[in-house]
Design a protein that fits this description.
single chain, 338 residues, alpha+beta, Uridine Diphospho-n-acetylenolpyruvylglucosamine Reductase, domain 2, Uridine Diphospho-n-acetylenolpyruvylglucosamine Reductase, domain 3, 4-stranded mixed β-sheet, 9 helices, 27% helix, globular
């Protein structure tokens, strides 16, 4: 087990802030993972589990052990009349998994292409895009308990998936490390085209809709809207779409009849956070090396010189502006450490 000390994390998270980890280890086997967890326990260290760092923001150096998950591999574990049941280890790149499945004619992930991050991070956030969520194809996951080192299988209901949410983002966040995810992937295409932007583009193309076409169109739409974090440091969508009551939506609609919204949970309405930011005139705004990108109002970017202080000043400015203008609170989507 090779644990390193005082390691820069600038290349291990996509917002690329200049912060360090007190201890750092890259794990590529379950045994190394368990050894790392034991080390943290023996030394009373906080633990941060990292995939590709595409949903993580640092407000300071991390005072503990950062565990970089590098568990690789995919296995077809079962097959039914309707599904291929595929197990993927937590360190697999999510987009590469989507591409592999499409090549094999394992369907259901096409709408989730180009979402940055690893397979292990996907259920934490219940990743979703263009009308599909991970929960739609999820079967189960395996996770190691940080204290007992026992591997436990969690079913879909165990995970308590919600909008960009799961039990691993809430009450079990500090208790388990996800090591693999098993998906139910369709043998026959199930085409999800209800998302407005995707549907519009498909109609314009006027071609036979296939999983491959959906994959290509979603890829094109994401590349148009979202800057590549390898080129411009960012974590993708920075704020959740807020959910408000029907009554509050009705009041706001009087002054903002064009307010972009979606159907939310029963009796509620989901508002486009990007619309709120753009309507406030903030799109393209930049200060102290942090910008709200011109490509997409939900994406904050680091020009290479941002600090945690300058980022959090920008976050506060955006949240305050939206609250004052619309009486809506914006919630940051990525995890904030330490």
């Amino acid at each position: 087990m090779q644990i390193q000390e005082n390691i820069s994390l600038i290349t291990f998270h996509t917002f690329k802030l200049p912060v360090n980890a007190q201890y750092f280890i890259k794990v590529d086997t379950l045994d190394v993972l368990k050894d790392a967890l034991s080390f943290a326990k023996q030394n009373a260290l906080r633990i941060l589990v990292l995939g590709e760092g595409s949903n993580v923001i640092f407000c300071d150096n991390f005072p503990g052990l950062v565990i970089k998950i590098a568990l690789q591999g995919q296995t077809l574990v079962a097959e039914t009349e309707q599904y291929y049941q595929l197990k993927a280890n937590a360190g697999e790149n999510w987009h590469n998994l989507v591409c592999d499945c499409l090549r094999k004619n394992y369907f259901g992930l096409e709408n989730l292409t180009l979402i940055p991050g690893t397979v292990g991070a996907a259920p934490v956030q219940n990743i979703g895009a263009y009308g599909v969520e991970l929960a739609d194809v999820f079967h189960s996951l395996t996770a190691v308990h940080r204290e007992t080192l026992e591997s436990i299988v969690f079913s879909k209901s165990d995970c308590q998936f919600g909008y960009r949410d799961s039990v691993f983002k809430q009450q079990l966040r500090e208790q388990f490390v996800i090591t693999s995810v098993t998906l139910n992937l369709y043998k026959d295409p199930v085409l999800e085209t209800s998302y407005a932007g995707l549907n519009k583009k498909l109609r314009e193309l006027n071609q036979t809709i296939t999983p491959k076409l959906i994959f290509e169109v979603v890829s094109q739409l994401r590349q148009q809207k979202l800057p590549d974090p390898q080129v411009l440091a960012n974590v993708g969508s920075f704020f959740k779409n807020p959910i408000i009551s029907v009554e509050q939506f009705a009041r706001l609609s009087v002054n903002y009849p064009d307010m972009s919204h979606f159907r939310g949970p029963s009796g509620q309405v989901k508002i486009s956070a990007a619309w709120l930011i753009e309507k406030s005139g903030l799109k393209g705004y930049e200060k102290n090396h942090v910008s709200i990108t011109k490509q997409h109002a939900l994406v904050l970017a680091n020009d290479g010189k941002a600090t945690p202080k300058s980022l959090f000043e920008m976050i506060d400015y955006i949240q305050t502006t939206i609250l004052e203008k619309f009486q809506i609170s914006l919630e940051v989507e990525p995890f904030i450490y330490p």
